[in-house]
């Protein structure tokens, strides 16, 4: 095993992002591999939250327009920082609401069903909340049977040609994940977008498992809308305010869910009962923004500007390359199935491994300081994050997994998921 340790040290020695590790709070003896569920807290995120709290302390209500980060414009300011990560204009990106609420807002705004074209396309592998939101839209319009789901042949991956072949003139709008939350597969977003537009279908993507892990060019690809959370790879903190992109060609449409923060800022405090919508993405806001749930993003996003998303992607692939190679070598013969695609263009920022004792393995890993997460029925997701994980972290995580498999330590734990998995 010495060769793997030496290779890890060599890779860490030339890592151009290695210094960012010192920016994060990492516990002693902890190998945190769950950044695809909740990213670690950074010192910059902590500082920016405290700074905004200081604004409240020092300015009171005037914090809405005073200080370095006026609250009145915070959603737009953070949206501008995220725009570079998704390849869009600042006027097309916003920090607002939660991911699920943003699905409701965008789909209800852009969905224009007719008697012939009313169906919504999703997929069998999507995150449940996305499906709940889409189904509720259909229910409200009286099209409860209008959901079309792309199926998976193996229960892990989606085939682009199958997606395209299911597009027809009955589909009004579609929402797919950019990266599948279980398997980590990256979908061919540009190809899917082009095909959907050829059929007159509005297309959106859920970027929750890709934002902050890989580059996007949403505007160039012609994507109509996208939603994402900010607490995974972006490390914005638990429940941090979500992100939203809507292509400028749709900004003329008045939003479905209207609220006072979607009003034109120049007239918002006229308090008129006629909605004077903002001319850009800002109209997608509804109520008063959650300032303290946005504030950490100022600090967290600053690191991405310095690191460069291209460098983040390169290291992320290197980390998962190293992990896959180690598992295939030192854990050969243990019936561990690596589900995540190996091709770079199809692999996101985490890997999924399968085993019949996966829940017990997950619990055993946590007891040894390795923090992954479990996904039913029998899988463990492992996400080494470029900004704070090292190659030596990966080495130790895999060696601890080997110890667990060698000694059957998973049998000491219940092979069932906890209430929160």
Automatic annotation (TrEMBL):
The organism of origin for this protein: Salinicoccus sediminis
Family matches, as SUPFAM superfamilies: PLP-dependent transferases
TM segment ranges: none
Keyword Kinase: no
Its EC number(s): 3.7.1.3
Description of how the protein assembles with itself and partners: Homodimer.
Pathway(s) served: Amino-acid degradation; L-kynurenine degradation; L-alanine and anthranilate from L-kynurenine: step 1/1; Cofactor biosynthesis; NAD(+) biosynthesis; quinolinate from L-kynurenine: step 2/3
GO cellular component: cytoplasm
UniProt keyword list: Hydrolase, Pyridine nucleotide biosynthesis, Pyridoxal phosphate
Role of this protein: Catalyzes the cleavage of L-kynurenine (L-Kyn) and L-3-hydroxykynurenine (L-3OHKyn) into anthranilic acid (AA) and 3-hydroxyanthranilic acid (3-OHAA), respectively.
Catalytic class of the enzyme: hydrolase
Stated family: Belongs to the kynureninase family.
Source taxonomy: Bacteria, Bacillati, Bacillota, Bacilli, Bacillales
CC cofactor: pyridoxal 5'-phosphate
Protein name, as recorded: Kynureninase
Pfam families with a match to the protein in the record: KYNU_C
Catalytic activity field: 3-hydroxy-L-kynurenine + H2O = 3-hydroxyanthranilate + L-alanine + H(+); L-kynurenine + H2O = anthranilate + L-alanine + H(+)
Modified residues (N6-(pyridoxal phosphate)lysine): 232
